[in-house]
Design brief:
This protein is of the alpha/beta class. The chain is 42% helix and 24% strand.
Length: 504
């Protein structure tokens, strides 16, 4: 175990999360709060009581538990938490060194002090070789005082270790780049996340100065801010922008949350947490995007969905007043329209999530399968003999193709031929229908936009949403036959030679 003297605690609030950081300094008595729990084991109950009274009088932050004999002592160790064990050497059933061996099996770092009335060089040698924290012979008040000081110091070191490990676990879980700079302006501690951010190994950072990862200007600014923090009327901490220079030469814009280590008269250094500003920017953009989608959803529900609802109400009222059954057909059609609109609205809301896993998809095969629900005697699908293999989420790519096929069929009053082929950077879906006016081509991707009488206006919005989720780009132009052509730019597209028949 690396020797640690004590901890210092600093409080930071980042994005409404309060972090409590524990770092090592030189004065243990000032850092640890709460009682020190000590177990004293001896076969003499009177001596136990005497030692307990002395230590609790000498130190008001000591909580001593006593156990008569090694058996009771071992039982308490297994069932309770202690910061230090003090044990006699000569006891029935199990002597102090045998007890130490049992304790070390489960608690290898727990401080163990041997306090015996039967002292000798031989016993002292055995105790040291066995790894005792301290060895004392029983005596008067002076020996009790020596024992008390050693026990308290060892217990505080152990308590510090436990707390440091606990907070280190928290820091690792939060995955924040944390650093501690000592009073000599040298890195004393850095977290794993800090090493990941900077690209350096730990031995390259520890002992170096902040200029290793910051420009001279950034170092001067940090020093100026730190001077404000340590001043009598300064803030407890400051957040400021800083550019971190990675080992590979890349510059990473960050926010630095810095505070001074607690001190009385002498400055002890500073502690800080770095926050990748690019990540925060992405999060802000994602929040804006989500808010936009929420506004979009609200608009669609309040406007586009209201129309078929009103139509259905009107049809129901007419059917009730006129008893004309044809109004029921209108009512049913509007209800079906609403059902489809709700389904597509939910699809629109879910397809915007970024695609995390992809696999190579045979575009020709998937297009053939996606065409089946739309195929009719008057319509046909054409796939060139050379098709493409696309890295994509298969279910989403299928839905993209289905929506393009539906758009082509619904907007052609007569028969339509849809062609699916590949380009150097992706693929296209084209038809020989009436086409889209150039002035309206960009509008077709807006949710709710439709020129079809019974259209929902969501189909092409879903297409773009799926493309965006993959990191693709989709654009609409005129096809060679005067119809509509959708081009999807996919950087990971690769051509394959595989014949595909025309499916009718």
């Amino acid at each position: 175990m690396a020797e640690t003297n004590t901890t210092t605690t600093g409080f930071f609030t980042i994005n409404d999360v309060t972090l409590i950081l524990t770092m090592s300094i030189e004065t243990p008595d000032k850092a640890i709060s709460g009682p020190i729990k000590i177990l004293h084991i001896d076969d003499d109950s009177g001596f136990l009581d005497l030692t307990k009274a002395f230590l609790e009088k000498e130190f008001n932050d000591v909580d001593m538990t006593t156990a008569v004999g090694s058996t009771e002592g071992l039982k308490r160790i297994k069932n309770e938490a202690f910061h230090c064990v003090v044990s006699d050497y000569e006891m029935p059933k199990m002597d102090g060194l045998e007890l130490l061996a049992e304790v070390r099996k489960e608690y290898p770092e727990l401080p163990f002090v041997l306090y015996t009335g039967k002292g000798s060089e031989e016993i002292a040698g055995k105790a040291i070789n066995a790894g005792v924290t301290g060895y004392f012979q029983k005596g008067g008040p002076e020996q009790h005082r020596r024992l008390a000081n050693r026990v308290k110091h060892a217990a505080k070191e152990y308590q510090t270790q436990i707390e440091s490990e606990r907070y280190s676990t928290v820091l690792r879980a939060l995955d924040y780049p944390v650093y501690v700079v000592n009073d000599e302006a040298e890195f004393e501690y850095v977290s794993e996340a800090f090493l990941t951010l900077t690209g350096y190994d730990r031995d390259e950072i520890i002992g170096s100065q902040p200029k290793k990862v910051k420009t001279d200007e950034a170092v001067q600014r940090a020093n100026s801010i730190l001077a404000e923090i340590v001043s009598s009327d300064g803030p407890e901490s400051r957040k400021f922008r800083v550019d971190i220079q990675r080992k590979d030469g890349e510059t990473v814009p960050c926010y630095d949350h810095m505070a001074a280590l607690p001190f009385d008269e002498e400055f002890r250094g500073s502690v800080g947490i770095l926050r990748d500003a690019t990540r925060e920017t992405r999060q802000r953009k994602e929040l804006i995007r989500q808010n936009k989608r929420l506004e979009e959803f609200t608009s669609i529900v309040s406007h586009d969905l209201r129309t078929p609802v009103d139509n259905a109400k009107t049809a129901a009222a007419l059917a009730r007043s006129t008893a004309d059954e044809s109004h029921f057909d209108t009512l049913e059609a509007e209800l079906n329209r609403m059902d489809r609109m709700i389904d597509e609205l939910l699809t629109l809301a879910s397809e915007g999530e970024a695609v995390s896993e992809t696999e190579p998809i045979d575009l020709g095969r998937l297009a053939t399968e996606a065409w089946e629900p739309f195929g009719s005697a008057r319509d046909s699908l054409s796939i060139p003999e050379e098709t493409a293999r696309i890295d994509a989420d298969e279910s989403r790519l299928r839905r993209l193709l289905e929506n393009l096929f539906r758009n082509a069929v619904e907007h052609c009053p007569s028969s339509v031929t849809v062609t699916v082929g590949h380009t150097e950077s992706g693929f296209y879906v084209a038809d020989d229908g009436p086409g889209i006016d150039e002035a309206n081509r960009e509008d077709v991707f807006d949710p709710g936009y439709t020129t079809a009488e019974d259209g929902t206006g969501f189909g092409l919005a879903i297409v773009r949403r799926i493309a965006d989720a993959h990191g693709w780009e989709v654009a609409v132009t005129q096809s060679d036959s005067g119809g509509t052509r959708f081009d999807v730019q996919v950087s990971s597209a690769t051509s394959v030679s595989e014949p595909r028949p025309i499916v009718s």
